[in-house]
Design goal:
about 270 residues, alpha+beta, Major capsid protein gp5 fold, five-stranded mixed sheet, 7 helices
């Protein structure tokens, strides 16, 4: 089934290739969550829900009836962003061979990427989904002033130590709001490197900044797939929505949800 409705409009294959390339390129530049989270899927456009097993999930049986204790199901929500291309611009591009301005598609892709990241970091109350900053029961560490001395490095090492004390070994990632990230760009004279370089080195490069975090935000995770991942039903793709005033309306769509399986794998710096 062509639910993206591309076949309902007479655009060339080259048009769709150019549009897809612009959207995918924009998404890759702006998505942050997918840089440290493993993907589970894609499960397909028809997948409507996904299960989450916590670390203690186990099958239980009573009188020949089996259930999985510690398992819950969540809906795979649909995220989308729309944009319009004017019919005259498309006609002009096809008639002259000049490139079509896809700025609106690029901006819509950027908005969708940020929408996905907000879902990952803050969840969504309307959907009943938790994010890394809003999950109940995660550990919170008091944060020193990261603009002073080696405080940031010391706090990060403390978080790694807490993870390892709970046998959470693997890919550690630190995600910061831009203001916190730029505080790390100061030289440590005795080391000949910036605080950002020092922390990035101990994290094997898994140091990220996301504009959706606002200000004063910092979270560290052990991002191994057994502790958390990103479930994808339909991965990001563009479909044809409608014609309005002769102009063409498109929709970039995805279905995706964060699966937190072990809340011990999240530490928030406050």
């Amino acid at each position: 089934m062509d639910f993206l409705a591309r076949g309902t409009v007479d655009f060339s294959e080259d048009f769709w290739k150019e549009l897809d390339a612009a959207v995918v390129d924009s998404v890759k530049k702006h998505l942050i969550g997918r840089r440290f989270l493993s993907l589970y899927g894609p499960l397909g456009a028809g997948a409507t829900s996904v299960h989450i097993d916590d670390v203690s999930a186990v099958q239980e049986e009573e009188d020949g009836v089996v259930k999985t204790a510690g398992r819950r199901y969540i809906e795979l929500p649909q995220l989308h962003e729309d944009f319009t291309l004017y019919w005259r611009d498309i006609e002009h591009s096809e008639a002259t061979g000049q490139p079509l301005d896809l700025s609106k598609a690029v901006m819509a892709a950027q908005a969708l990427a940020q929408k996905e990241d907000r879902l990952i970091f803050f969840g969504n109350e309307f959907l009943g989904l938790e994010g890394l900053f809003t999950a109940e029961g995660v550990e919170k560490l008091s944060r020193a002033d990261w603009a002073v001395g080696e405080n940031a490095f010391t706090d990060v090492v403390s978080a790694i130590s807490k993870f390892q004390s709970k046998s959470l070994i693997g890919r550690y990632a630190l995600i910061l709001s831009p203001d916190m990230y730029f505080k790390l760009h100061r030289l440590q004279p005795s080391l000949g490197m910036t605080e950002e370089e020092r922390i990035s080195k101990i994290l094997n490069g898994h140091l990220y900044s996301s504009p959706v975090l606002g200000e004063g935000k910092a979270v560290m995770v052990c991002a191994e797939p057994q502790y958390m991942d990103l479930a994808v039903g339909k991965d990001i793709e563009t479909g044809y929505l409608e014609t309005k005033d002769f102009n063409h309306v498109f929709r970039i769509v995805e279905t995706v949800a964060l699966r937190i399986k072990c809340k011990d794998a999240i530490i928030i710096f406050e």
